[in-house]
Amino acid sequence: xxxxxxxxxxxxxxxxxxxxxxxxxxxxxxxxxxxxxxxxxxxxxxxxxxxxxxxxxxxxxxxxxxxxxxxxxxxxxxxxxxxxxxxxxxxxxxxxxxxxxxxxxxxxxxxxxxxxxxxxxxxxxxxxxxxxxxxxxxxxxxxxxxxxxxxxxxxxxxxxxxxxxxxxxxxxxxxxxxxxxxxxxxxxxxxxxxxxxxxxxxxxxxxxxxxxxxxxxxxxxxxxxxxxxxxxxxxxxxxxxxxxxxxxxxxxxxxxxxxxxxxxxxxxxxxxxxxxxxxxxxxxxxxxxxxxxxxxxxxxxxxxxxxxxxxxxxxxxxxxxxxxxxxxxxxxxxxxxxxxxxxxxxxxxxxxxxxxxxxxxxxxxxxxxxxxxxxxxxxxxxxxxxxxxxxxxxxxxxxxxxxxxxxxxxxxxxxxxxxxxxxxxxxxxxxxxxxxxxxxxxxxxxxxxxxxxxxxxxxxxxxxxxxxxxxxxxxxxxxxxxxxxxxxxxxxxxxxxxxxxxxxxxxxxxxxxxxxxxxxxxxxxxxxxxxxxxxxxxxxxxxxxxxxxxxxxxxxxxxxxxxxxxxxxxxxxxxxxxxxxxxxxxxxxxxxxxxxxxxxxxxxxxxxxxxxxxxxxxxxxxxxxxxxxxxxxxxxxxxxxxxxxxxxxxxxxxxxxxxxxxxxxxxxxxxxxxxxxxxxxxxxxxxxxxxxxxxxxxxxxxxxxxxxxxxxxxxxxxxxxxxxxxxxxxxxxxxxxxxxxxxxxxxxxxxxxxxxxxxxxxxxxxxxxxxxxxxxxxxxxxxxxxxxxxxxxxxxxxxxxx
Length: 802
Prior knowledge:
By secondary structure, the protein is of the alpha+beta class. It has six domains: 73 residues, Phenylalanyl-tRNA Synthetase, Chain B, domain 1, CATH 3.30.56; 127 residues, CATH 2.40.50.140; 191 residues, Phenylalanyl-trna Synthetase, Chain B, domain 3 (Phenylalanyl-tRNA Synthetase, Chain B, domain 3, 3-Layer(bba) Sandwich), CATH 3.50.40.10; 73 residues, Phenylalanyl-tRNA Synthetase, Chain B, domain 1; 187 residues, BirA Bifunctional Protein, domain 2; 78 residues, 2-Layer Sandwich (Alpha-Beta Plaits), CATH 3.30.70. Helix content is 24%, strand content 27%.
């Protein structure tokens, strides 16, 4: 967005005149000013010159010797100057742009150069008669074909010797403000809004408002019926009819200001609406009333409707766009662009002027749907404050009455809506100082807020330091809470005036690892690969895994059916991963997954699931025992001894005959099991698989057990294997517990192998135990170890098996 400094001066009596200083202050406190274009920088030391004579150059066919009359200028020498010029449209009496010695120009519109006395083909030249491009005036004075190859600027009847900068009114500076910096500030999309900001920043004082005569609207109704089925989408509306005897021409001051901010003057009605849009931030539109046929209607579009807009483009409109139509169709895309059919022409004598405040969300949707963005739409989508629409509309009517020939208001004011009501916001002064980190006095806070247009009610004597602040009506969209007011205080006070304070605090070390991280590291060291699926599953996946879907917690707004439930177990994701990847694994597939699980019948807890899948028959002799061994090893790493029991009520995914509960003391920590064959089949897994689910929350809640390291044995061990028959009714755990305490030399007694195949009767199995003997202070002899082994077996009725 471009803002003219000269235009701002209509509202501000500047105390700071340097445009760069003003831009810097705005950038620090309001919005980033990306560029400052100072007009007339190339017009310094330039004046209006009058040509007294034109003679041919004696040594160059394409050059002329010209005598120019100028007024004396500081350091410029005599009033009469002789120069060499290559212009092709020179004539005696012509008023030209003359650059004195020391002026800076663009040589043939290119590189900058500073003028000095020179000799050109043997003739002295004291200055330069300039073409438009050499002074940056090519927009105001475009070249004309009849003026030849290098046309000189023809300044008509301007006063000889007058400063060129003064003559052209080129003493403005234009700020290029970053639009994204003011997206949430609709009040700043205008010169009036930026002027208020400059006054609050103490860059100047407010000029008194000019007293203008009150507008008188007759009681005459509009010359057409006006239906408003979409009235709720326009919170504020003003419209009236204006009659003119001719279109007239925009004054030079209006054209100059429009051009300064990049708007091309078109015609007086269009220029007035553009001028008011830029001054007050209120886009308006003027229609030729003669082209409006029958009843007009403010409505929403239906699918497939079209409009030919002012730019001549045929546009297909989305369903639900805000438009105005008559008997011939749509003639206005509200808040974006009018239709070509009802546009103002040179023959227009009846004008309908309107100013709507449309729903910004609806406008933005229409912009996106049509791919068509205009200056008006960009302002409307930010949310035009209703209070500014009324001020802007009345200003436009004033300009029509002042500038258009024979202009008069010919209808009553059609309007609805109001300017809104500002809430009163309680602002504790203690919070202001706490948030900003600087002590702010009550009077300073109140002064800043009042400079922004707020009404401030200070606390009564002896009452709590709380200000009751009512924002101005043009700030209804962004000043809605105490935090907004504190931000305003900070930026107007100046962020640079808030001292830098180094933060300080106490840093306390956190746990090096979570239970999930530690378990993941241990299981990964055992050769298992971690998978990281989503924690959301679907009913179909749970059913395939044999899990009751009614116990799962449903998502209120699921993305898809496959992600509609919180996972009740880590097992379904492991099985689904195995379905997709088991053929890619070499040997056996070993995976694990740590995550939180959720069910209706139990509190949320953290769980680690382990899956061990054989990729061919016999590749892994007993995955069930291997999984149990891995869980026991994990618990030992945490310093806990595990007890393994047969699972009397296995989970629905488990094989009923091969399922175990693993406890630490009386606390159930894990379940290990073979996957039920029907579940394997549902996931197309052809071979045996075993799994374990470990309750990490229960494991973390156990009282800490210290794992102590011990030195490596200094002496060798002697081991014996013993195989004997056992029935399934006789658990092996109690026997192992007794054996392990039977001798000071018995280092360990563990199950080495189980067999229940060919030759073993039903209900029985062969178990192989391995006994390891070692002395801490010597090497055991064979006889000594054998004797101790027989002693242990005899004490537990196993000697006969040996």
